[in-house]
Amino acid sequence: KVYAFGHPNLTAGPTNVPMSAGYVISLLPNVQNSFKLAVPLDVVGAFQQDRSTGIAGTVGASSRMIPVNLTLNSSLNAANKYKFEVAADRFLTPPLMNFIVFNAITSNERALGEMTVYISGQIRLKNHDAVNIGNVFSSDMNGPAMASIAAVSPLQYLLMAGYDGVVIDDINLEITSTDRKTNAQLERISVNKAEVAPGDTVMLTASLRTTSGDTVIEQYPVQIPAGLPAGPVQLVVGDGTTVTNLDIRRGPSGVPAGMKQVINELNKLRKNDRLYIKVVSFEPGVVIGGEEFPSLPPSMAAVINSDR
């Protein structure tokens, strides 16, 4: 048994992370907080406790690790492949993954300036469907930070959803970076008719302005759902972040009823490199087991709303 520090580390409680020997290069005395500069050596065991008075582990024990395969396609047309192992811990895995993705990008690309970063991949789970990762960010700064957050957010939600038995087999990521912005601003929307019947198709015209000042016109046919009741209908158009934020402001759809539903919700996350068009009616609906049921038939609504 090994007991270390005599002071808190992360105070994470029961844990299972690798223990390695270390070599202290130097001590830096500081009136406020002195600290050591050290480098890790070979893994010699595992730490199982992280408490307020120190950490404890066992020499010769092993901790479960998650294999991470990362391919980075840089703006210089170079493909770099990395293989990591990340500690399997509900609280530590997401920030460790954030370090991996951010440092992999900044070791090959600049951290500031015009940049577009595409990220895609999968989180493969034991006894469950895989969680897909996919998004794109284009900006003048913080491209690597936004890309790493996009990679880690589904993982963090998956581990913090509150369901036990989440075992991650491996994580595979592919990141492609270009040293220029490729975004456009949605300036104007128009439709070819203001009154529609259920089942009709409306032609929606979108005007977008690129960073070079050029105007791009795109058209999308939108079918009005059959069976929609009479009344006003709203078309909501925007990128993934905009439409998702509107959904959040509209109200929560309920807590996922199990891991299968958590994975389904994660795989429905919207992306930033496309326009989404939602047909919104103002009929009341219900949420059952985390699933939305809009515009229920009157007979079903009466059953659900009864005192029994």
Strand order of the largest sheet: 6-5-9-7-8
Rg calculated over all Cα atoms: 25 Å
N/C terminus separation = 59 Å
Instruction: Tell me, briefly, the overall form.
Output: globular
Helix content: 10-25%
**Biggest β-sheet: count, sense, barrel?**
5 strands, mixed
- Share of residues in strands: over 45%
Low-confidence stretches: none
Structural class call reads: alpha+beta
Order of helices and strands: EEEEEEHEEHEEEEEHHEEEH
Query: Which whole number gives the mean pLDDT?
Result: 87
Let me know the number of strands: 16
List keywords for this structure.
308 residues; four-stranded antiparallel β-sheet
Describe the protein.
By secondary structure, the chain is of the alpha+beta class. The protein is 19% helix and 46% strand. The chain contains 5 helices and 16 strands. The strands form 5 sheets. A 5-stranded mixed sheet has the order 6-5-9-7-8. Strands 1-4-3-2 form a 4-stranded antiparallel sheet, with no helix packed on it. A 3-stranded antiparallel sheet has the order 10-11-12, with no helix packed on it. Helix 1 packs antiparallel against helix 2. The model has no long low-confidence stretch (mean pLDDT 87).
Strands, helices and their partners?
Blueprint: E1 2-4, E2 13-28, E3 35-51, E4 54-59, E5 65-73, E6 79-87, H1 93-106, E7 112-125, E8 131-141, H2 143-160, E9 168-178, E10 184-191, E11 201-210, E12 215-223, E13 233-238, H3 240-250, H4 259-267, E14 276-281, E15 285-288, E16 291-294, H5 298-305
Parallel strand pairs: 5-9
Antiparallel strand pairs: 1-4, 2-3, 3-4, 5-6, 7-8, 7-9, 10-11, 11-12, 13-14, 15-16
Helix pairs in contact: 1-2
